[in-house]
Each structure stands twice: as C-alpha cells, then as structure tokens.
Amino acid sequence: CASLWARLPPGRQPGPRAAICSALRAHTGPFLGTLGRVPAVACASSSASGGSKAPNTSLFVPLTVKPQGRSADGDVGAELTRPLDKNEVKKILDKFYKRKEIQKLSADYGLDARLFHQAFISFRNYIMQSHSLDVDIHIILNDICFSAGKYPEARVLQRKIIFHSGPTNSGKTYHAIQKYLSAKSGVYCGPLKLLAHEIFEKSNAAGVPCDLVTGEERVTVEPDGKQAAHVACTVEMCSVTTPYEVAVIDEIQMIKDPARGWAWTRALLGLCAEEIHLCGESAAIDLVTELMYTTGEDVEVRTYKRLTPIFVLDHALESLDNLRPGDCIVCFSKNDIYSVSRQIEIRGLESAVIYGSLPPGTKLAQARKFNDPGDPCKILVATDAVGMGLNLSIRRIIFYSLMKPSINEKGEKEIEPITTSQALQIAGRAGRFSSKFKEGEVTTMNREDLSLLKEILNRPVDPIKAAGLHPTAEQIEMFAYHLPDTTLSNLIDIFVDFSQVDGQYFVCNMDDFKFSAELIQHIPLSLRVRYVFCTAPINKKQPFVCSSLLQFARQYSRNEPLTFSWLRRYIKWPLLPPKNIKDLMDLEAVHDVLDLYLWLSYRFIDMFPDASLVRDLQKQLDGIIQDGVHNITKLIKISEAHKLLNLQNSSVESQSRLSGTVKSRTRRNHGTKALGSKAAEPLGSGAGEKSLASRLVQQGLLTADMLKQLEKEWMTQQTEHGKGRTESGTSLTGTRRKKKEPDSD
C-alpha cells in the first residue's frame, strides 16, 4: 500500500524520502541485500585478524536495471492518475540524491558514496527512459510531484486558524460569520442543509452575494450564472481547490462523528483560505491543535460564554397538564412524538412537530408556526433535530426520556443515556439570545430522570481524541486494480482491515456504503460509477428508497436516461394528502427518493437530466407533507381507530414508569451520584415484572400490530411443523395469553 502514501493525511505519511527509498529497494532489493551482507562479513574477517580496514567496494558492480518498453496493457499508472512530467520527476530525484540523511541511509545499507551514486544513476535512468512504469512507482512519483492527498493549495498558504469555542447561544458562530461577511470571498461549511440555507439567505439579505451548494441543490445568485465570491454549503460539498479569504467550519466537534467525521477532517486540512474560523465545543481544541501542528499552522482560541442564563429546574414536569407556552418536549422516537402529540391534543392544546425525517421546508414551516406570537400553537414536540439548524423561541426544554438509540463505530445499535455533549446541545436551545425568552429552563418529564440529567449536564465533556477518515475513489480503484475480481463491498472490508492509522485518526463507519454496494452489486457498472452510487445518502430503513437506488442504478446501466415523465410514473404522481400516519411516512419516503434523484443529477447530469422539474415537484410534495404534519393529531387519531397505530401503552404515565426504571438501573450500574435532586425511587415490582414484549413496545421497537403479526406467524409455523409441535405451540401461546398483562399490546 506504499502507493497510497501521498493520499494519506499528515501524521500517516512516511514522507517522500521513505517513499523513494521504498521504490529504490523494490528495484534493487537483491543487490542491496547482497551489499548489506558481504561487507559485514568482510569487516568481521578483518576484525578477527586484527585489521580494521574497510572492505574494497570496487569489487562490486551494480546491475543495470533495463528501462521498460511499452506495455501491451498500456500505461495503467497514467490511466489511474495522469502522465508524469519527467522534468519534474528528475528535479525531485536529484534533490533526493543530495540530501545528507539519504546518503547516511545508503551507508547504513552498505553502500559507500561510489556505489550509492552508481545505483542512483541506474535507478534515475530507469525512471526517465521507461515508456511505462510499474503502477506502484508511477503513482508514488505522481503523488510526490502533485502532492496528491496533501491538499497542495492549502499547504502553499500559511493559514490562520481561529477556534471560536463556547456553549450553545454564546455568539461564537455570529462572530465567525461577521468575518465571513466582511471578507472579499468566503465559504461557510455547515452540518445541515438548513444551516447552509440560513447563511445563504442571511448573506444575500446583508448585500453580500452568496451561492448555495448542497448535495441536492445548486443556487447561483448572479444573473449571468457566474459563481459568487461567497458560498454557503454543506461540509461534504466544500471545494478544497477554490481559494477564499475566509472559511467558516461550523460544529467542528463533528469531526469525531462515526459516519460523517471525514468531511470535517477534509475541510480542516484542505480548505484553501487565508483564515479558517472553526466554531464548536472546547472538546475539539486539543485535537485540532495537534492536527494543525502536522501542517505547521498555529491555532488561536477565542472563548465565549453563554449570552443568556439557563437553569436546571428542581422539579420534573410529571404531567402534560403542567405544560406552559414556550415548552419543547424532546423525544428520541417517533412513537413518543405521536403519543405526546396525541396527549397534548386531548388536553385541548395545539403543538408543532419536528423530527429528523421531515423535509427541510416542513421543519421550517413548523418552526414558524411555533415561533409566531399570533398562532395558537405554543407547544413544540420534537426529536433532537432541534439541537441545531433551527431558530426556535423556546422557554423550557423538557426531556421526555434520557435514553437515545445510537449507532456506534462498529455499526451496532445501542440504547444508552444521552451524552453530555448531546444534553448540552439540546438544553442550550432554551432561552436563546434572539428569542423573546431571555432565560432558559431545563427539566425532565419524569421525576426519576431529573437527578441523572443534572449529573449528565455537570460532567466535563470528554476531549475528542481522533478525526474521521474515508477512503477515496482513487484509493479503492488502486485496490481494485490489484484485486480485479473482488466486489466493492469486500474491497472496502479489505481496505479497512489493512488501514493503519495513528491515534489522531479513525476510519469512519462504512456500513451504509457497504449496504448500497451489496444492493447494486449484480448491476453492471464501472467501479467509479458504482462508488458514486454507494456514496449517495439514503435511509436504508426505508424500503422504497432502497429499491429506488436499485432501480436508478439499473436504468443507468442500460444507458436509459431517467426523465421527469419516467419519474412521475415511478412515484405514481400525483400523490394524495395523507389519511393516516402510514401515508405520511410513505410521502416522506417519496421525498427522500426525489432527494436521491437530485443528488445523482449533479453527478450524472446526462442520465438525470430534469433536476429543475424534479425540484418543483418536490416543493409540491413538501406542501402536501406540511399539510399532513399540520393535522398530525388527526392522522394519529385515524391511525389508532384503524389499528394502524396503538399508542395506549405509550401514555405519559406508563412511559414515566419505564423510563424511571431504566435510568435508575443505569445509575446504579455505573455508580453515579444524584446531584441536587430527590433520590431516585427504588424499582417498583410492577415495572420490574413487565414482559419483554411490553418493554419493546414501550421503547418503540415494536408496535402492537407487529406483535400480533409475530404471534400469527408463530402459530402458523407451529401448525406447518406437525401435530406434535402444534400442540406445543398452542400450549406456549395459551400460557402466554394467560400471563399477558393488560397493557402488553
């Protein structure tokens, strides 16, 4: 893997000297090996006889390495990279030869000055006179010449790095954006489309022409289509070759994200800007400083304090009857969202709803509804999607639960208490400086959770230890060249297994990439095209989205353009407004499919030619979804009536018991200490005796319908396996029915 040398980030590169030494050894290995042994024997003989005379190296003559002619396969190295500039290569080799440490290294290998000179001349002639070089050597020399992977444009500059550190609502991003707006040119890199849109609109409103670039959208504001000097983009889409005066990288702590961290690493190391302004948690300061040390750049840290006070209350909400205007209830599952919304509606109150899979336009519409002083909607029910990207006028954050499902670095699903970083990010949305509430409050739904919340918020945030990396298409192509019959999914596994990263880096989780690779493996596509399809962001939990990726790839492989008329037929447009929650979720999936089309349209414009028409269609769909979410409690009510959704067992009271039980157990297992709150109540016998099915339903991992379907399938399976098993299955089922608790559905 030495050929990947120059594509590796600082901290993993052996340097050009070691790379060329590796190449030299590859072509003169046997010769060097002999030289390394024979003089040693000669010296030993001299020493044994009492002499100390150095060996006579004139006895050794280096073998000439013949230049390579034209290969029948063509110049593969040039095809994978580009043709070498032989004049530039000669300059690099000559500099290599003159370095004193290289001459010392040659002596360590048994080469005196004469032999080293002869070996070097032979090697240089081989490089200069060969029509086509071995692939590995070609790529090594190309990477050294062009400094590939080392972000040559950024390395030419002595960039000024300013780290704006502070909690939520401290003004850190505001100060960075002011520098961005006052610069002659600039780029804003954000974690969300919503944030990129916000800076795009704010910049243009301030009279600073600004373009917008996200994975699915490109907007230019200049009438002639010329690029503006400023651009707001999602972090994955930033250019590392365009020069800017100022760059802003928001939420820099996401450099540790198991799936997306690579994008922040790339932006930090590669942005070609005179000033780089980083905004984020102090936990990232040490890592950023270490990474910048490898590039020879200093980091200036500016620390900010929160602009408005925030208080953790000494009492939990306990009942939705205690809600007040400006309250935001934060849930970590859609089932809880539906349940709480329904309970609020029963109490004669109106609520706005925001969760991650909603389209950006719908989220903004719900945020405007909640923020509008003249709107009767004064309560917000949301997931942690409110943690960033939306300006909300919240007085009090109420954690409905402290348990959050997550995916770890190994791709495994875990349900654990939220981290200090997550708790601070969400809690910090209360009482923002720009809202009408000048003080923020934070509490929990359940009394048993309050002490744990206080403890979580009082813990120091763990320093970030490593930055994410992601294999590039070029690296995967190199592996594919050596392993031509290996599937893309297996290539990724091999790459990850053989990757050696130091403590400052980790390889991002590739499960989503591999999922897509396996999904489209049987479709004939070139490796580069297959790689692009696999990097398309999809929700693999949505079957329609996954089947659409498959269908799009199949159409592409047949060289059949995916036209607007074809897409309309495929999604069965026009679509009707949702009549229940299932219809709403189906519409969200269709919106994701249109996002996928738009994402691919910017990579394969000839095969996905109707991006503007599809965007107009998507806006219409967004409006339909907005109407559905506006009437979400009606949809929930209809879904319950038709047994499409059963929320009776997700009531606030039953959730309180389960949540308190889980968190109490968590606290005892970890030996945590409650701070400033009434001690947690002991486990109740009723809560402890809940069946597995009941617990899964309560946690939102099973619905009542799914439970009934599982029971039917179980009974059918037993019937099909003979009378004996049928009797056993009936007995088991009967026993379960007798023991089943009243609320286990």
From TrEMBL:
Which residues lie within the region annotated Disordered?
A: 655-687, 713-745
Source species, domain of life: Eukaryota
Ranges of Basic and acidic residues compositional bias? 713-726
EC numbers on record:
3.6.4.13
Q: Which InterPro entries match?
A: DEXQc_SUV3, Helicase_C-like, P-loop_NTPase, RNA-DNA_Helicase, SUV3_C, Suv3_C_1, Suv3_DEXQc, Suv3_N
Pfam families hit by this protein: DEXQc_Suv3, Helicase_C, SUV3_C, Suv3_C_1, Suv3_N
| A cellular component term, taken from the record's GO annotations | mitochondrial degradosome
Keyword set, alphabetical order:
ATP-binding, Helicase, Hydrolase, Mitochondrion, Nucleotide-binding, Transit peptide
Instruction: Provide the reaction this enzyme catalyses.
Output: ATP + H2O = ADP + phosphate + H(+)
The residue ranges of the Helicase C-terminal domain are 312-477
GO MF term (any one)? ATP binding
| Location of the protein in the cell | Mitochondrion
Q: Which cofactor does it need?
A: Mg(2+); Mn(2+)
Q: Which GO terms describe its biological process?
A: mitochondrial RNA 3'-end processing
Name of the top EC class for this enzyme: hydrolase
Family membership noted in the UniProt record: Belongs to the helicase family.
Q: What is this protein called?
A: ATP-dependent RNA helicase SUPV3L1, mitochondrial
Protein species of origin: Monodon monoceros
